[in-house]
């Protein structure tokens, strides 16, 4: 019954004694996908007895466990709660909702009970019910930290009439969005609908992997929940279809990927093919080449594509030359011997043998003639993380004519503080426990970017390089940036971005505020920090970042410091010192 992945459940008010009958009857009649039901009822005597009797158990068999979320008793008896979790695990319930975390909750005692339960019982996640209101996130964060960031703790976020910023909640392990029936209003025909502002908020959550619960308020005990379920499905049907680029990238949301090592490893054909699907990127490259060809004073222009791969830039270079109406000699240089086979095939079938093919490393090949235009696509998600500076230094020194043009002409790296429980947990589990000092390429989604990205450093290739071969000290960098936090949050690391000037005013960017439309070749970088840091509104976060190089390795080091308004401060360690976890090989 789920529409486009949307799952809608119901939580009836009052006690349901027979969960199996409710699932087979009322839940299915309401067209719901699941129900939230108490695990037991009137079962206090079970603790002394040591077991439940049949009449105390709500869901008695595993037949309907897949479509029931359990609701635990109050915190009055932790032994009863432990027995309920054991029963839930035995029956096969996928999750159990803990009692509400409210403003009156003793947070330390609540956290202690949660931690004891998840430490002593089988792997059923506990879902903490929180009402979205002022101070709610701070309460959740304190409980989460007291529990040591337990991955089996999740959130059921109940929305209401309180107007509060929910941005930070999208960085939390929210599994359920709870909508009490009192949130709805009747339309002209008497059917329940949401106000416009509530509709917008629900649609934002529909872009996340959450399920919805229609909770029957006590004052609405007589309403028919089927109309609420149908309305949510209707609302999902009004969502705009994602762009082709967004659809292509969706499967990579929050998936950690190790950055490429293109100088150490030869890329496979499938990897080239994935990048070649990004037409907007190549449209910009083609426009930049056409402009550079038009501006060149040479009668016959020599254009070199270095790191040609399977030839997408070569195709665009030939097209740019035709559009500019100029004579252009195109030379393609590629060190991957397998890719060179593909280049030969394309030269015969597509390019009419117009292209001179060279199998060489651009850093060491000495040509008989130099390039008027040198084109590469060596940029990584952080601009320089695939060693574009190192490659283009050598290429410009050996290949570029005195008045030659390099495309790209320059590029810059940016960072912003980031909160994401999911990304941090995945980094912690990555690489046998060493993953928190390694940067990743990731399509960041379940996250909250806490401030606008700021510039770290840049590289420019506007003239032939005069650097000494083998000396890379000039490509080392160190930068510091300070950010002011606007809302309560937990810092899990840094998001990294880049932008580039290809030629003149032709630019590429993956920064959120200037992102090149529909371009999807690059996802941002994620630099985790080992110990998450709590930040309050008005706090200052200072980011230190280094780009270091020694012998045949280049790497990043990073640290975060916080300074509160009341003189409180905290510092992370300097991550990846001396490349002890991650480096890029030359």
Task: Write a concise keyword list for the protein shown above.
586 residues; alpha/beta; TIM Barrel; Rossmann fold; Hnrnp arginine n-methyltransferase1; seven-stranded antiparallel beta sheet; 14 helices; 26% helix; elongated; Arg_MeTrfase; methyltransferase; protein-arginine N-methyltransferase activity; transferase
Give a verbal description of the structure.
The protein is α/β, with parallel strands linked by helices. It folds into three domains: 238 residues, Alpha-Beta Barrel (TIM Barrel), CATH 3.20.20.150; 109 residues, Vaccinia Virus protein VP39 (Rossmann fold, 3-Layer(aba) Sandwich); 176 residues, Hnrnp arginine n-methyltransferase1 (Distorted Sandwich), CATH 2.70.160.11. 26% of the residues lie in helices and 28% in strands. It contains 14 helices and 27 strands. The protein has an eight-stranded parallel β-barrel with strand order 1-2-3-4-5-6-7-10, surrounded by four helices. Strands 16, 17, 18, 19, 21, 22 and 23 form a seven-stranded antiparallel sheet that branches.
């Amino acid at each position: 019954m789920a529409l486009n992945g949307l799952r809608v459940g119901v939580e009836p008010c009052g006690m349901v004694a027979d969960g199996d009958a409710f699932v087979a009857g009322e839940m299915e009649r309401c067209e719901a996908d699941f129900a939230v039901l108490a695990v037991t009822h009137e079962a206090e005597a079970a603790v002394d007895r040591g077991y439940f009797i049949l009449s105390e158990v709500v869901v008695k068999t595993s037949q309907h466990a897949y479509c029931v979320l359990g609701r635990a008793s109050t915190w009055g008896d932790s032994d009863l709660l432990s027995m309920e979790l054991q029963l839930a695990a035995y029956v096969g319930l996928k999750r159990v909702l803990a009692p509400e975390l409210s403003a009156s909750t003793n947070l330390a005692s609540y956290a202690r009970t949660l931690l004891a339960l998840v430490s002593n019982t089988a792997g059923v996640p506990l879902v903490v019910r929180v009402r979205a209101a002022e101070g709610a996130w701070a309460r959740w964060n304190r409980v989460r930290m007291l529990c040591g960031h337990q991955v089996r703790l999740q959130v059921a976020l109940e929305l209401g009439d309180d107007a509060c910023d929910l941005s930070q909640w999208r960085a939390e392990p929210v599994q359920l969005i709870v909508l009490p029936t009192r949130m709805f209003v009747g339309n002209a025909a008497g059917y329940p609908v949401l106000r416009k502002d509530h509709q917008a908020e629900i649609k934002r959550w529909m872009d996340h992997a959450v399920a919805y619960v229609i909770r029957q308020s006590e004052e609405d005990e007589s309403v028919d929940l089927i109309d609420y379920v149908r309305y949510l499905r209707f609302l999902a049907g009004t969502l705009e279809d994602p762009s082709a680029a967004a659809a292509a990238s969706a499967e990579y949301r929050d998936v950690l990927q190790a950055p490429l090592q293109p100088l150490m490893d030869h890329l496979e054909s499938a990897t080239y093919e994935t990048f070649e699907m990004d037409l907007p990127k190549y449209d910009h490259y083609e426009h930049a080449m056409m402009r550079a060809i038009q501006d060149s004073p040479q009668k016959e222009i020599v254009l070199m594509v270095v790191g040609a791969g399977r030839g997408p830039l070569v195709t665009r270079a030939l097209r740019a030359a035709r559009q500019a109406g100029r004579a252009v000699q195109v030379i393609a240089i590629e060190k991957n011997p397998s890719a060179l086979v593909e280049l030969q095939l394309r030269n015969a079938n597509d390019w009419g043998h117009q292209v001179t093919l060279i199998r060489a490393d651009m850093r060491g090949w000495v040509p008989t003639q130099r390039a008027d235009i040198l084109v590469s696509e060596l940029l990584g998600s952080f601009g320089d993380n695939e060693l574009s500076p190192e490659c283009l230094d050598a290429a410009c020194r050996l290949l570029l004519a005195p008045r030659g043009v390099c495309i790209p002409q320059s590029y810059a790296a940016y960072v912003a503080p980031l909160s994401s429980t999911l990304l941090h947990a995945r980094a912690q589990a990555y690489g046998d426990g060493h993953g928190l000092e390694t940067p990743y390429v990731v399509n960041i989604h379940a996250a909250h970017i806490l401030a606008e990205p700021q510039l770290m450093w840049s590289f420019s290739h506007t003239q032939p390089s005069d650097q000494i071969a083998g000396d890379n000290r000039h490509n080392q960098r160190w930068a510091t940036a300070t950010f002011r936090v606007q809302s309560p949050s937990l810092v899990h690391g840094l998001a990294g971005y880049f932008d580039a000037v290809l030629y003149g005013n032709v630019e590429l960017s993956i920064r959120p505020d200037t992102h090149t439309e529909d371009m999807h070749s690059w996802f941002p970088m994620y630099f985790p920090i080992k110990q998450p840091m709590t930040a309050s509104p008005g706090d200052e976060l200072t980011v230190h970042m280094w780009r270091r190089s020694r012998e045949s390795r280049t790497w990043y080091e990073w640290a975060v410091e916080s300074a509160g308004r009341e003189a409180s401060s905290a510092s992370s360690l300097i991550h990846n010192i001396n490349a002890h976890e991650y480096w890029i090989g030359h």
